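Re: the request from the purification team.
They wanted to know what the chain is likely to look like in 3D before they choose a buffer screen. I agreed to run a prediction and write the result into the notebook, where they can find it.
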Amino acid sequence: MSALVFTLVLIILWGHSLRVQVKDRTKDLQGSLDELNLAQRKLIEQEKMAALGGLSAGLSHEIKNPLGNSMTMISYMLRETDHALESVKKQKKLQYKQ
């Protein structure tokens, strides 16, 4: 009988030891998961800031680049001039027909 009681006590102690180990391991894993989540949030924030920095640099470059602005304005003015010339030509054709 004492052997049976001794075995039961060992099983109970072993079970308790396993529960403690599982609890400790779960705590360690939760800590690791928390660290990974924090690292992920930081990485996402860094990527957002990098993208914003790139966008800001590109926008600043375009605003400060007078040659690019001049070329844009010149091409706009050329298109408008072409439209105006076509309009004048059409009006002259109509006048000659009358």
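For the purification team: The mean pLDDT is 89.
Please add any questions underneath this entry.
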